[in-house]
Amino acid sequence: MAVTSEQVAALPKAELHLHIEGTLEPELALELSARNGVPLSYRDVAALRGAYSFSDLGSFLALYYECMAVLRTAADFADLAAAYLARARADGVRRVEMFFDPQVHLSRGVPLTEVIGGLRQAADRSAQAGGPEVGLIACFLRDRGPADAARTLEALADHAGQLLAVGLDSAEVGYPPGDFAEVFAAARGLGLHGVAHAGEEGPPEYVWQAIDLLGVARVDHGIRSIEDPALLRRLAADGTALTVCPLSNVRLRCVPTIAAHPLPALLDAGVKVTVNSDDPAYFGGYIGDNYLALASGLGLGLTDLAALAANSLDACLY
After folding, report:
1. Between 145-156 and 181-189, two packed helices, what is the crossing angle to 10 degrees?
2. Catalytic residue among 25, 97, 200, 201, which?
3. Is the peptide bond before 132 cis (omega within 30 degrees of 0)?
4. Looking at the chain, which runs of residues are DSSP E strands?
5. What is the mean pLDDT of residues 53-74?
6. Could you tell me which residues are beta bridge partners of residue 165?
7. Is pLDDT at 1 greater than 80 in this prediction?
8. Using CA atoms, how far apart are residues 153 and 219, in angstroms rounded to an integer?
9. What are phi and psi of 221, to 5 degrees?
10. How far is Cα of residue 301 from the mean position of the Cα atoms in its chain?
């Protein structure tokens, strides 16, 4: 019997790999464009949604950053997060550890007080309404280099009490995690956890660097770990969770199809795998859709999906 969306929604789960800017649906993007007088290259929802077709990570990021320009005020960030959190609650999400990209917003002249204030406003309202609870993870854009990341961390220091962790995202190839070791050490000094994107497009060596040089608590993506048996043994022995995003991996052509996804092999190796949606407005699927895609594409049953959901709750940072 096929797994249903209702069964997936009934599984208590956490979402640990979610870029809040990547939940910006075309309808809200155009609404905020008009609200803030920030023009987009697309005249209507149909045109903008039609642009959500990518050949690779770089072409996705170009559109992603263009749409992000409409986010200007605390109210904008609150509206963005509230829309996502309502969807997440319907999908059975109990906790979200939410990425945001401070460098992009700072470079557009948007103060951190607006960004973090708006996100925390939505988070507080979500908690008061019964969830999901929210932790914020400020991600460094690896293609802007460690010096810019260090400056960003200085700007974040006054807000450290409102944050859970720092992360490392954006274009992976050519930007090894080890370059950011000093920044992550400084973040630990502020009481912040560390996570990092590694092993999505980049090689297994980037995952080694993330765990050994950055000291991350989790690895985001990490699917290319499957190429390195020693790395699999290390991840399994340490209980280091991977925040895997199946529909994103297919959409960005990191794997050809869900049926070819290495998730079952990672589980067979004893790795703690979690399921997440990454940038769901752009990749055509929120967290429930990702679970259903695994059920249909890999033949996972409800017991398998429940184990993945339990992994996500176990991998939360507090």
Report:
1. 10
2. 200
3. yes
4. 13-19, 93-100, 133-141, 165-169, 193-198, 218-221, 241-244, 273-275
5. 85
6. 137, 193
7. no
8. 20
9. 75, -100
10. 25
On whether the CB atoms of residues 167 and 210 are closer than 8 A, the answer is no
Model pTM score: 0.97
What the block records as the tokens of 49 is 């949604």
Residue pair 90/9 in contact (Cβ under 8 Å)? The answer is yes
- Catalytic annotation on 200? yes
- Please report the domains of the chain, with CATH numbers, ordered by start residue: 5-314 (3.20.20.140)
Strand 193-198 to 13-19 pairing? unpaired
Q: What is the pLDDT of residues 240-259, one digit of tens each?
A: 999 999 999 999 889 999 99
Specify the amino acid at residue 205. E
End-to-end CA distance of the chain: 37
User: For the segment 264-289, what is each residue's pLDDT rounded down to a tens digit?
Assistant: 999 999 999 999 999 999 998 999 99
DSSP calls for 113-163: HHHHHHHHHHHHHHHHTT--EEEEEEEEEGGGHHHHHHHHHHHHGGGGGG-
Sheet containing strand 93-100, strands side by side: 13-19, 93-100, 133-141, 165-169, 193-198, 218-221, 241-244, 273-275
Rg (CA), the chain: 18
What is the per-residue pLDDT across 119-165, written as a single tens digit (0 to 9) for each? 999 999 999 999 999 999 999 999 999 999 999 999 999 999 999 99
Tokens, residue 94: 């109990």
**Both tokens of residue 20?**
């809040």
Q: Tell me how many degrees the CA angle 208-213-217 measures, rounded to the nearest 5.
A: 75
Q: Examine the pLDDT at 210 and tell me if it is beyond 90.
A: yes
